[in-house]
Amino acid sequence: MSYLPVDPARPEPVRVGLIGAGWMGAFHARSLASTIPGAVLAAIADPALEPAVSLAAELGVPQVTADPADLFADPAIDAVVIAGPIRFHAALSAAAARAGKHVFCEKPGATTLEELSEVEAAVAEAGVHWQIGFNRRYAADFLAARRDLAAGAVGTPQLLRSLTRDPGTGSIPHAARVPQWTMFLETLIHDFDALNWMNPGAEPVSVHVLADALVEPDLRDAGFIDTAVATIRYSNGAMAVAEASFSALYGYDVRGETFGSRGMVQAGRPTETAARTYGPEGLSARTPRLNIELFADAYRDELADFAAHAAARRDGAPAPDHGVPLTPGLADARRALAMARACIESVQTGLPASVAGSVVSGAGEAHDGAAAVAR
Ligand SMILES: NC(=O)c1ccc[n+]([C@@H]2O[C@H](COP(=O)([O-])OP(=O)(O)OC[C@H]3O[C@@H](n4cnc5c(N)ncnc54)[C@H](O)[C@@H]3O)[C@@H](O)[C@H]2O)c1
């Protein structure tokens, strides 16, 4: 027997530093350390050192620090994945970009549009790749629906819907410590992006929100929100509904739909697997319980796409082409954040609110090639 020769000229992997090694960061770390082609996890930064050190030990990551600035200063780090608390996202993104690192940032890109402008300026100046964690786009059923939409299956979009129901027990642990606008800035922001992506070329114009504490009514007077419905009007006339609950007893439920002049596409997997159980009481199936179950592949695929983009940018190679617009960037982060901010305003006033600042005037990165509309 003789082995075949192998070409040793493999491209250099993208060396990634993780910032924030909590629930989501640890999942990303495990993906980067094991299943993302073309990437290696080179370092972890988290002010909570003890869990970061044990994660690094588990994954064989050689460097751990309490200070993200150490990653920015390290010339061996090509890119960072930011999964810290959202109030730090903009400053971390901007500092990483200024240090020449490609950036994958968990959602939202910032908590205000002003903060996001600072990120936009730093990224433009540095010429790095910046991507946001709108993982839903990478889920097989959402991507298939988006491809069918691009092929004309829907015609002109008229009605859209998107929903998120987080798994729960009927009460929300540590609800009093959940920041007030989490519903819009961290949860429905996924739905806003999904709706925008499934309504190509249109801009969100206005929103009107109903929101309440139906799961934790004792926290209503403190302004806590666990249940919300937003209606959205788009520039192409389409109307959309986004809704979310923080407590679905049957598990994690995410769905999306675009209906139009020629038909409809739907995405959203109600069961954990294709298995069904038939018995005397009827038909049953297991439902997904966690985001990292429902979106396990999507979370990995978004990081694989990030690594491919970062490598292409680093090596001067063409960016990956997915056939349909897929990789979510700063324009998508801005559009979804502008909707979240408008929803917050609508809750505060009880009235419809205009979506302001969803597009940077003259930014040139228009939605699916549509003309940029400054609002
Ligand atoms: N895409 C998704 O489906 C999804 C799901 C869950 C969370 N997230 C996002 O991931 C991010 C983190 O959420 P989480 O649930 O993992 O939170 P978490 O609280 O579990 O983890 C946050 C981590 O950040 C660390 N941290 C605190 N301050 C920091 C700083 N200044 N710099 C770096 N790290 C710091 C904390 O010590 C902690 O380990 C948020 O943006 C959240 O919206 C996304």
UniProtKB/TrEMBL annotation:
Bilayer-crossing regions: none
Keyword Magnesium: no
Ranges where the Gfo/Idh/MocA-like oxidoreductase N-terminal domain occurs: 14-134
GFO/IDH/MocA-like oxidoreductase domain segment(s): 142-265
Keywords assigned: NAD, Oxidoreductase
Family that this chain belongs to: Belongs to the Gfo/Idh/MocA family.
Protein name from the UniProt record: Gfo/Idh/MocA family oxidoreductase
Organism: Sinomonas halotolerans
Species classification: Bacteria, Bacillati, Actinomycetota, Actinomycetes, Micrococcales
